[in-house]
What does this fold into?
Amino acid sequence: MDYTLENGDGDTWNRGETIKVSIKFDVDELSSGIYKVTFFLYNGVSASDTFSR
It folds into this structure.
């Protein structure tokens, strides 16, 4: 997993800044099935995405 601060001016993710998260899977080692990725913010807000292989 890698992340970058798209419009930040330091090493800390602050209010109003955009974070870009990249998650890479080795497809040969990933079993067939349905997967869910959830990203939680410090204030309890979350975003999820589901994908299958």
Q: What stands out?
A: DSSP finds no helices and four strands in the chain.
